[in-house]
């Protein structure tokens, strides 16, 4: 059960990370916010790797594993998140996230076909239930959005695909490189990639509060959440760890209701029940 627990912990930390960074997105360019968050994550991840002894013999690192984890970060975080942010500007937050969080279905299919992971009907049911719960909870927002922009929809679908591909690629890389070392080496490259995309020569609107929020968001979502997710992938495979960790929007809504005193809707209660049932199906070992 450790792999399942780690995946759910990833979802909880991802939810907390989302709440922390949500305010900064109102004042800052999303790509710049992501770049700064990744930079903070890099600064913390490197010392962790040194203390754990993972950096003692870098010459022993297999080039293929290193290339795969870096490529996964660029595909998933770099390209995927950028597409998501662009989609948000065109079709709104809830629509973009609803489509993007169909990712577990893509990941399940790709993992079974290309990674040779086992397929169980119960796991498919659990994955579908979690996707439905996310769609339900995100459907509570942005009800005033106008006509759907197909370009935004296409970008959101592309986000789901790139996230899924990124997950599969990193799963392949983890066969040859440790979790701690994978994050320590891929985050600096990802940070540089995002800064290049963010047009760094233009003026940056930063204040101490936003820096603190992005730092805390990076620690929870990328450092701690990144470690727990990759360990989960190693233990139970991408097809099962992805839908469990992708339940974060539901947990974020629950946290917002409890911490920020946002309204608890019947749809939120029902989606919470569905995600729990989905988790139950995904923890079953076989049909």
What does this structure look like?
- This protein has helices at residues 2-22, 30-51, 63-91, 93-100, 103-114, 121-138, 150-173, 179-197, 208-236, 238-245, 248-259, 266-283.
- The chain is mainly alpha-helical and 287 residues long.
- It starts with a helix and ends with a helix.
Q: Would you tell me the structural class of the helices and strands?
A: mainly alpha
Average pLDDT, to the nearest integer?
Answer: 83
Percent of residues in helices: over 70%
The proportion of residues in beta strands is under 5%
Q: What are the low-pLDDT stretches, counting only 5+ consecutive residues below 50?
A: none
| Counted beta strands | 0
Distance between the termini: 17 Å
What shape does the CA trace take? globular
Radius of gyration over all CA atoms, rounded: 18 Å
By oligomeric state, this entry counts as: single chain
Counting DSSP H or I runs of 4 or more residues, the number of helices is: 12
Question: How many domains in all?
Answer: 1
| Sequence of secondary-structure elements | HHHHHHHHHHHH
Largest sheet geometry:
none
């Amino acid at each position: 059960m450790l792999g399942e627990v780690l995946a759910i912990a990833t979802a909880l930390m991802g939810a907390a990370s989302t709440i922390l960074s949500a305010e900064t997105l109102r004042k800052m360019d999303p790509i710049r916010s992501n770049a700064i968050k990744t930079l903070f994550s890099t600064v913390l991840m490197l010392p962790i790797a040194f203390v754990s002894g993972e950096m003692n013999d870098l010459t022993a690192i297999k080039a293929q594993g290193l290339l795969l984890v870096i490529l996964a970060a660029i595909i998933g975080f770099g390209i995927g998140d950028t597409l998501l942010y662009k989609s948000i500007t065109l079709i709104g937050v809830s629509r973009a996230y609803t489509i993007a969080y169909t990712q577990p279905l893509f990941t399940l299919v790709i993992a079974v076909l290309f990674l040779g992971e086992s397929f169980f009907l119960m796991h498919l049911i659990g994955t579908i239930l979690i996707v439905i719960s996310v769609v339900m909870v995100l459907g509570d927002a942005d009800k005033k959005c106008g006509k759907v922009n197909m370009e935004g929809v296409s970008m959101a679908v592309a986000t789901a695909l790139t996230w899924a591909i990124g997950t599969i690629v990193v799963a392949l890389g983890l066969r040859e490189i440790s979790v701690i070392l994978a994050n320590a080496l891929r985050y600096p490259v990802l940070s540089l990639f995002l800064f290049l995309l963010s047009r760094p020569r233009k003026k940056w609107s930063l204040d101490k509060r936003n820096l603190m929020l992005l730092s805390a968001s990076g620690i929870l979502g990328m450092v701690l959440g990144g470690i727990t997710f990759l360990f989960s992938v190693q233990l139970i495979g991408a097809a099962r760890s992805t839908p469990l960790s992708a339940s974060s929007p539901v947990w974020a809504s629950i946290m917002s209701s409890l911490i920020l005193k946002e309204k608890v809707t019947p749809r939120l209660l029902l989606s919470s029940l569905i995600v729990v049932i989905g988790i139950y199906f995904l923890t079953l070992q076989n049909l």
